[in-house]
Structure formats: structure tokens, C-alpha cells
Amino acid sequence: MEFKIAVLAGDGIGPEISVQGVDVMTAVCEKFGHKVSYEYALCGADAIDKVGDPFPEATYEVCKRADAVLFSAVGDPKFDNDPTAKVRPEQGLLAMRKKLGLFANIRPVQTFKCLLHKSPLRAELVEGADFLCIRELTGGMYFGEKYQDNEKAYDTNMYTRPEIERILKVGFEYAMKRRKHLTVVDKANVLASSRLWRQIAQEMAPQYPEVTTDYMFVDNAAMRMIQEPTFFDVMVTENTFGDILTDEGSCISGSMGLLPSASTGESTPVFEPIHGSWPQAKGLNIANPLAQILSVAMLFEYFDCKEEGALIRKAVDASLDACVRTPEIQVEGGAKYGTKEVGEWIVNYIRKA
Ligand SMILES: NC(=O)C1=CN([C@@H]2O[C@H](COP(=O)(O)OP(=O)(O)OC[C@H]3O[C@@H](n4cnc5c(N)ncnc54)[C@H](O)[C@@H]3O)[C@@H](O)[C@H]2O)C=CC1
Ligand SMILES: CC(C)CC(=O)C(=O)O
Ligand SMILES: [Mg+2]
């Protein structure tokens, strides 16, 4: 195959993990005889500083002509700490998702056997947890009408029937391919938007008689994820709830630096870690590159390159087993590995495999 990849490194730890993702992509392509080329483009705070726009038109063009986007993270404290800033790095990420029509964000939450004790939850509780959060990505509060003055502010949580139907369909279809259990997470006891989600889910469920569909309020789901994470197979939920619940999900795996995702929909898919730009770690070579590297595995799997994805997963497992890990998941007293060293170890493993 031939892959044209748009690389959007962004801010904070973004550029450091991006390099590792690209190197793994290149190593796998060499191994399997695929051609790969990269086009780098600006986004986030970096793009605001350089051209005044967090998702410049030139970046959009690069994304449109690519087969896939390898995205890292955006965000910078100088904007986080200025609630009056009119242009923000995160608007670039939202613009990319909206313009590319990426309505379905697939976020797998899994455990690694050797990291069970790194979860703040008891190992026996998280063992075997393996679920997908299907997060709606281009609607809801992040995109609804907003207003802000010194006395009043609001964000509108709006969803239309077609938006709900298409994301629920993704949820039901993933459930069919997995353990056939779909949990629709909403707040239908309070929110009108959630009631429409639940109504449409109930209308669609009979089309998937093999799927056990249940409905759970988001506050209860947040608790159940901690209490019994193995309960879940596929959960489908709106943009805001999915964003929050998957950060919580990273505690099941043991680190924010472990969770990849695929943002898919109407055009070029984007593969991105679920975490942000962790600005405090910028330049320190301590960020875990695995979320980015596993996003590359998801990229290959999206294009039906199963062996390529499996090799990356094998290399990641091997690095963890060999204790080649970044500080937040390192064994006590073990050798120290940085972002770069973990990435290089994985690339070498792939080359030798
Ligand atoms: N997709 C994106 O680009 C996202 C961007 N952001 C932005 O990122 C900036 C920082 O936001 P935060 O709320 O601090 O979230 P964050 O995800 O950047 O960091 C939260 C915590 O997660 C851990 N963490 C994150 N990435 C890690 C990695 N690769 N390896 C090991 N540990 C890691 C660290 O302990 C960190 O303190 C903000 O400007 C925010 O708006 C936040 C979330 C997503
Ligand atoms: C920074 C936000 C726009 C998004 C976010 O937190 C996420 O996609 O996980
Ligand atoms: Mg988030």
C-alpha cells in the first residue's frame, strides 16, 4: 500500500510523541513493503503563534489530501490561564474534527497484564477490563451556540436525529463485532438532548436483536467504570460525557499515556492519543509515547492492515514486559527510559521481528 500521512504535532509534549509515532509508522511500512510519505502542518497554539489561526486553511488542505492524519495534542497554559482569550488552540482541534466530519471517536480502554498494579484501582478489579467508548465527536456542547459576558455565559447541548442515529449505528455495529453488549450512556433523567438519544436508541435496538442494549445515566456510569469496569463492552455517548469518561478510563489502564483513539467519519480519519499536551512535561522526555504509537496501530487496522497493527501491539507489549517504560509506569528502582528511548526500543523491535 501507499500511505500519505498528514502529521500534526501541535503543542507541549505533542512534537516529542509525534516523532515516535512517525518512526514507528516508517519502520512498519519498511517491514511490510508499504510506501509512506509525510506532510507536516501547523495546528494549535503553535499555529496561532505562527499564523494567527489554530487550524489554518493550509493545514486543512494537507489533511484533505492525506489518507490519514497522525495528530498529537494541542493546548498551552498561556491560553488556559486567560479565560478572555478569543482564539484558543483547542478551537483548532474542534475545527479539524468538524471540517473533516469526524463524528465517531473510537476510544478503546484496555489493561496490560504487567501494569495491573499501576492502576489506582485494585488489580483484581481491573483485570480483564476491555471496552470501547464510542464518543460522538462533532456535536453537543462543544459545538453548540455559546455566549459569554461578564455576568452570564452558556453553551448549548444540541443534537439532531441524524447525528444521534449515525453514532448509535456505529455503537451497535461495534457491539455486533464484539461481545454484543451496548451501553447507551446519557442523562435522560434531566436533559432533553439525552431523552432524544434514549428514544432513538430504543427505536434502533430491535434492528440488532443479538445485542443486549442497556441504558445508564452518566453519573452511574462514572461509578460503574470504577466499581466494575469489566461490565462494559461497548459504550456509546455524547461528546462531553465521552471526553470525561475516557480520562477516567485511563486510570483503569494505568496511565493517560496509554490510550489511543481513532476519529472517523466522512473524510480523512485522524489517529490521536486521548490525552492533551501536558505542558508541564514539554521538553523533559518523560511523556509516554505509547498512546501515540498505539494510534498508529489503529491507523493500520483502519486500513485493514491487521498484521501491521498486530506487530505494533506485540512490540508495545514486549516493551512493557521488558520494563522499557516511561517514569509514570516504571517499576520501582528500575532503569529509566524516556519518550525517545521507549520509541527507539519499539522501532528496533519492529525492525528485528
Ligand atoms: N486532544 C488534545 O489535544 C487535548 C488537549 N488538551 C489540552 O492540553 C492541555 C493540558 O490539559 P490537561 O487537562 O492537563 O490534560 P493532559 O492530558 O495534557 O494531562 C493530564 C495529565 O495526564 C498525564 N499525561 C498526559 N499525557 C501523558 C503521557 N503521554 N504520558 C504520561 N502521562 C500523561 C499527566 O499526568 C498529566 O498531568 C490543555 O491546554 C488542554 O486544553 C486536553 C485534552 C485533549
Ligand atoms: C481539548 C478538547 C477540545 C478535547 C479533548 O479533551 C479530547 O478530545 O479529549
Ligand atoms: Mg479529553
UniProtKB/TrEMBL annotation:
Cofactor descriptive note: Binds 1 Mg(2+) or Mn(2+) ion per subunit.
SUPFAM superfamilies xref list: Isocitrate/Isopropylmalate dehydrogenase-like
Enzyme class: oxidoreductase
Pathway assigned to this chain's UniProt record: Amino-acid biosynthesis; L-leucine biosynthesis; L-leucine from 3-methyl-2-oxobutanoate: step 3/4
A Pfam family recorded for this sequence: Iso_dh
PROSITE patterns recorded: IDH_IMDH
UniProt-recorded Gene Ontology molecular function terms: 3-isopropylmalate dehydrogenase activity
Required cofactor(s): Mg(2+); Mn(2+)
Sequence ranges assigned to domain Isopropylmalate dehydrogenase-like in this UniProt record: 4-346
Enzyme Commission number(s) of this protein: 1.1.1.85
Catalysed reaction equations from the record: (2R,3S)-3-isopropylmalate + NAD(+) = 4-methyl-2-oxopentanoate + CO2 + NADH
Family: Belongs to the isocitrate and isopropylmalate dehydrogenases family. LeuB type 1 subfamily.
NCBIfam families the UniProt entry points to: leuB
PANTHER family registered for this protein in UniProt: 3-ISOPROPYLMALATE DEHYDROGENASE (PTHR42979)
Subunit structure: Homodimer.
Name of this protein: 3-isopropylmalate dehydrogenase
Organism of provenance: Phocaeicola acetigenes
